[in-house]
User: Which sequence fits this backbone?
């Protein structure tokens, strides 16, 4: 898990990519009148397979949106862009991480996009609180894993 | 048409994730590592995304209804309850371990890294569990 190799500071690419993310959130609002939260959209798609309780019935557009996400790296690669991705090879760590991310976003009704981007843009009090908590929890977790336990 | 537009929206979102670096767990974890190999790039992702959404939402809400739907469906709850607080904390811990949040986990899928192939199914299981746990009496009886 301790992949503490430095990464390049990329302010312009990050700003540009961020604007695209925000633009997509605006598209989803303009087209479907919905929040572009990936956890919520995934929830809606899952509802087609297993009962999800509060999952919305309108699944078609959500499924197509997820397909768009999956097609993104291929699109970037085909248009000559480079994709940098380093995923931990600690599979039990990644399994635990996946479970916690799923449970947390299911329970907390949102993730980095739903609460982070859309919620803050709406000035939602719930989302501001959620973002403060998950950012703090993530900073503390990384600090402990990298500087206290030295990776696991 | 609906599905095509939804696919396009997802594609724009995903390309944003990929080129911003948000889809690279190494970059996310370095952003979260203030005391070590800190990479502040992701603050620019968040800044750009929130600014674009903040302005765009206000333009879009001038219309009576969305182009392909009957109304704007915006969360109305304002209470800070236990599921929100506990869920956000649990999500933050998972994000700090793996460096993936839900969107990047999807864009990482076609790259087929073993860590992704473990993370994504577990995330779906977790989402199912979390969505149901939200209604457990222990979490709903009193607000935090």
Assistant:
């Amino acid at each position: 898990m301790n992949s503490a190799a430095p990464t390049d500071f990329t302010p312009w690419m990050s700003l540009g990519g961020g604007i695209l993310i925000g633009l997509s959130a605006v598209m989803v609002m303009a087209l479907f009148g919905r929040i572009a939260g990936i956890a919520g959209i995934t929830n809606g798609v899952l509802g087609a397979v297993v009962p999800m309780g509060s999952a919305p019935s309108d699944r078609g557009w959500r499924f197509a949106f997820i397909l768009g996400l999956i097609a993104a790296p291929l699109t970037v690669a085909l248009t000559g862009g480079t994709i940098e991705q380093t995923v931990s090879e600690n599979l039990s760590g990644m399994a635990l991480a996946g479970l916690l991310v799923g449970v947390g976003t299911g329970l907390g009704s949102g993730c980095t996009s739903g609460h982070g981007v859309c919620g803050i843009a709406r000035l939602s009090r719930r989302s501001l609180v959620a973002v403060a908590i998950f950012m703090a929890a993530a900073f503390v977790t990384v600090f402990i894993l990298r500087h206290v336990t030295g990776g696991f | 048409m609906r599905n095509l537009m939804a696919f396009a929206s997802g594609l724009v979102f995903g390309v944003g994730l990929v080129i911003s670096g948000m889809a690279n767990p190494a970059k996310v974890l370095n952003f979260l590592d203030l005391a070590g190999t800190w990479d502040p790039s992701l603050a620019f992702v968040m800044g750009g995304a929130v600014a674009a959404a903040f302005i765009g939402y206000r333009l879009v809400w001038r219309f009576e209804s969305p182009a392909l739907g009957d109304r704007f469906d915006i969360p109305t709850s304002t209470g800070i309850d236990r599921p929100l607080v506990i869920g956000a904390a649990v999500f933050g811990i998972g994000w700090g371990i793996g460096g993936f949040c839900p969107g990047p986990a999807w864009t990482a899928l076609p790259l087929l890294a073993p860590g992704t192939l473990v993370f994504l199914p577990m995330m779906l299981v977790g989402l199912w569990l979390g969505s149901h746990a939200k209604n457990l009496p222990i979490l709903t009886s009193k607000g935090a």
